[in-house]
Amino acid sequence: MPERRGMPQSGKTWCLVMNPGSFWGQTIIAYGCGRPGERYNSTHVVARHTAHTAGIMVWGSITYASRSALTVVCGTLTGQRHVDDILRPHVGPFLNGLPGAIFQQDNARPHTARVVQDFLRHVQTLPWPACSPDLSPIEHVWDHQKRQMPLCHSVHDLEVDVQELWVHLPQYNIRRLINTMPDRVVSCIAAGGGPTRY
């Protein structure tokens, strides 16, 4: 692949980096999973915050027929905080209303902590492969939320807007994403665990 301005070469992959301005603080967009000769594909571009700016972390859960309330997580999420602030007050009651439900979460460090595994020992969980956002429908929900976010000028505005988007996210969109799970699994296997169109 010829050397292109703004596209550093790294042997097996390329990385496009550009600064599109600011969304909530300084943002950089990067894609680092291309192969030599592969064309730039804007659907694989991801926004990442690169400056120390105010922001929020949220937790939410989706099912085919419903979704949980969206919870704002303040500060750093540890395993103990995940149990105290998310699992015990939100996941437990949410799952109690869904007989036979299977709980799934990714393998982020707070999710795999011993205290979390101890808490979930009586909950049916779905084993989840490491590094597999291509398989998780909620990752696409978060992406949709981020793309719909208006410019916010305070943390309070950000919290209000995120909650508003969550409440008004059509359940049809969630169902459509969940219905793609069989195809996601097939694509992931065909790609040998590598990137897929999802």
Q: What does this 3D model show about the protein?
A:
This is Tc1-like transposase DDE domain-containing protein. One of its GO terms (molecular function) is nucleic acid binding. It comes from Araneus ventricosus (Orbweaver spider). By secondary structure, the protein is mostly helical. It has a domain at 54-191: 2-Layer Sandwich (Nucleotidyltransferase, domain 5). It is 37% helix and 9% strand. It has helices at 79-96, 109-112, 114-119, 137-148, 155-168, 171-179, 181-190, and strands at residues 16-18, 27-31, 46-49, 57-59, 71-73. The strands form two sheets. Strands 1-2-3 form a three-stranded antiparallel sheet, with no helix packed on it. A two-stranded antiparallel ribbon has the order 4-5. Strand 1 (16-18) and strand 2 (27-31) form a beta hairpin. Helix 4 packs antiparallel against helix 6. Residues 1-33 have low confidence and may be disordered.
